Amino acid sequence: MSVIFLIAFQAQLVSAEQIEVPQELLDAEAKRIEVMKSAAPSVVAIFSSDGNGGGSGVLISADGFAVTNFHVIEGMDGFMKCGLNDGKIYDAVTVGIDPTGDVALIQLLGRTDFPHARIGDSDLVRLGDSTFAMGNPFLLATDFQPTVTYGIVSGVHRYQFPAGTFLEYTDCIQVDTSINPGNSGGPLFNMNGELIGINGRISVEKRGRVNVGAGYSISINQVMHFLDHLKSGRVVDHATLGATVAATSDGTVVIDKILESSEAYRRGLRRDDEILTFAGRPIRSVNQFKNILGIYPKGWVVPISYRRDGKRTDIQVRLMGLHRRAELAGGDADPQMPAPRPGEEPDLPEQAPHPADNEVPEEFKHMYVKRHEFANYYYNQLGQDQLMPLVKAWGDYASKPVGWSLNGRINEMTPVEIRFLPDAIAGKFGEQFAIQQLQQDFSDLPPNSGGLLAALLQLKHLLADPEDYFTEFYYLGTEPFEDSADKVSVLVTTRNLVTCRWYFSLEKKQLLGFDSSLGDGVDACEVRFGELVDVGGVQYPKAMTIRYGSAPFGTLSVDSLQFFAPPPMGENKP
Questions:
Q1: Which residue in 15, 157, 444, 458 has its CB near the most CB atoms, within 10 A?
Q2: Cβ neighbours for 317, distance < 8 A, ≥ 6 positions apart
Q3: How far apart are CA 313 and CA 474, in angstroms?
Q4: Is 217 a catalytic residue?
Q5: 184 an active-site residue?
Q6: Which of 91, 102, 176, 515 is catalytic?
């Protein structure tokens, strides 16, 4: 009888009672079980109304907002059914979608006290951290009890190239935690029970869609950057700098190509400039630049530091949109899940039966409104309804005559007179005249202001007749504002080529100012409001600070604002 056999035989004789498990292991197991138990109520099993697919999601707030993958809810036509681990089925509605980042926001209905996950910080995730995923792989959770898988972080700041269409995973988390079809849109948690990612892509074996040990989660920090844009009910876009970068032989990252129409170019960035930091993070590789850029929505302003000839320059740049509007709206490209690279594919939803009651209750039907370029216009209208009372608080401008006469001074020195007439805006700035005919495209008048006359006209119509004047009018979401740590809510209006971004502080209940752009590829006239004062029964800013590009134009102090019935069109005199 061999020595090995004897040892094995003797080991079988040792009773379980004689094996002492270290208490720290028992405590760690108990903690792990408790953390998973506390996270489970936030996990959502998602089913299409017609029973033709499903996936997973995670609740992030008590009012029922939940995050999932875009490819999970695509084609569900607005409404779906969702199960939680309390065994109940809830109706849910699409809120907003991000086809590029493969993220969607839905809202579960019928409660205001939903259990929800605690949001973590994905920037703190490190290689080797323990994680667990929850969801509904292969739609096994017919009782809505989520499946749990456990593993580690295999990589951070991974970049998954677009494939087939423009879907792109940037700055994602790679895990060996088992993620399989049906896990799509489900949560990735750290061992504190904090949400750090949304599971989406997997690497598979060639003969079937089975995870081979590499799954990819969208970082929760990226999701949170886009969250308020998604709450606007829109099809949201990602950002681009309007430039490409390349690595040099010594490893530095430099501008390779740059669009002259980009704001980065107008702020001074040029080919071969070395990128030092982007959005406050150091840039050490092309991959890192793409990762950081990919987590920001179109229109955000970020700081950039670059070096040229040994000199460092710091600038602020508003990021361009990555796609044309027609692409996002489905006009030129179909934002489906991409054809994967060999060995990689999105975690596509399973085909499975759905709970029998797939009718949308009458009380919820009004919460889904189809409109071109929106995921659900109902939620955009909610955002507008929240902001417009702050405009109307300035007074009943609609009842005032359409002729306005504004008198004031620029920088307390140069006298200003501006008359708003039916077919023109006539301004006198010191001894210089500026006349903008309204039948013509708006110009930069007075010169080097970015189109102050056009901007003040947009303000006039926002106050008096926004429904009739603007051709586009929508709620954008929230974004950082200048040097403040607080975000502001943004309303966007368009008339012909003039687009304005109106900035609101819900905390202060104020309209703070706006940016008015005469078209794409030009700097905006930036107007910021001072204290409001009474002018004939309505309120108007006592002063307005005006900037154009990176330079101040001046402070317009308003001495008076009068209203009058203008002469017939064609009889206007400056």
A1: 458
A2: 241, 263, 264, 267, 269, 301, 302, 304
A3: 36
A4: no
A5: yes
A6: 102
